[in-house]
Specification:
Largest sheet: 5 strands, antiparallel
CATH superfamily of the largest domain: Probable tRNA modification gtpase trme, domain 1
Order of helices and strands: HEEHEEEHEEHEEEHH
Number of helices: 6
Shape: globular
CATH class of the largest domain: Alpha Beta
Structural class: alpha+beta
Strand content: 25-35%
Length: 212
């Protein structure tokens, strides 16, 4: 079987240059192969909520645009009865089994959407400023701090933004077909925070021909 290849493999060296060229104000990397499951259930069903909390060590967030995390896993609120359950590489089957068990005979659904998006991690004191160039969500700490998430557009591409800590560090869930575009846009938006233009140089034509 062929080895898996991250959609943004070709950007790895450019991502690694960001921290140095920005003087530590920014850092960027891809978190490939993240387990992602779309989970739908009646939010008022206490039995399901209790079963999920017992299995994952955190409860399903009920407040709009919030997330809950523990042990390297998270649940992001997407709607009144919908969450994105996130785990590490290779945890798709485990998480699916846990969620199906939690549902039992109750109406709901568990769908593995891991292949639908990759995750770009953007962190550092200038991270919010970079995102503000192309995102309409107010990222000020008062309305949008650690543990907040939102479905929005970033430079006209659909993304889910999750602030995971106060650094701040953001996880950007990007559709794989838009990953190259978003990565290029972010690198370009970082140019004013970085010395020189190394991070903003376009991918060679031979590589860009494989862009989705």
């Amino acid at each position: 079987m062929a080895d898996k290849r991250a959609i943004l493999d070709g950007f790895a060296s450019r991502f690694s240059e960001v921290a140095t060229s920005s003087g530590g104000r920014l850092a960027m990397r891809e978190l490939p192969f993240t387990a992602q499951l779309n989970f739908r259930s009646n939010p008022t069903d206490g039995r399901v909520a209790e079963a999920v909390q017992k299995a994952l060590a955190f409860g399903l967030p009920r407040e709009p645009n919030t997330a809950a995390s523990a042990g390297g896993r998270s649940a992001l609120w997407l709607g009144p009865d919908e969450w994105l359950i996130v785990g590490g590489e290779g945890e798709e089957s485990l998480l699916a089994r846990v969620l199906h068990t939690a549902l039992g005979d109750t109406f709901g659904s568990v769908v593995d959407v891991s292949a639908n998006r990759t995750v770009i991690e953007l962190s550092g004191p200038a991270a919010k400023d970079v995102l503000a160039h192309g995102c309409l969500v107010d990222l000020h700490p008062r309305p949008f701090g650690t543990g907040r998430c939102a479905q929005t557009l970033l430079a006209k591409a659909q993304v889910i933004i999750h602030q995971v800590n106060d650094t701040p560090t953001f996880h950007l869930y990007v559709r794989t077909s838009f990953a190259w575009y978003v990565a290029e846009w972010l690198l370009d938006a970082m140019t004013e925070y970085c010395a020189g233009e190394a991070v903003a140089v376009s991918v060679p034509l031979a590589e860009s021909a494989h862009q989705p």
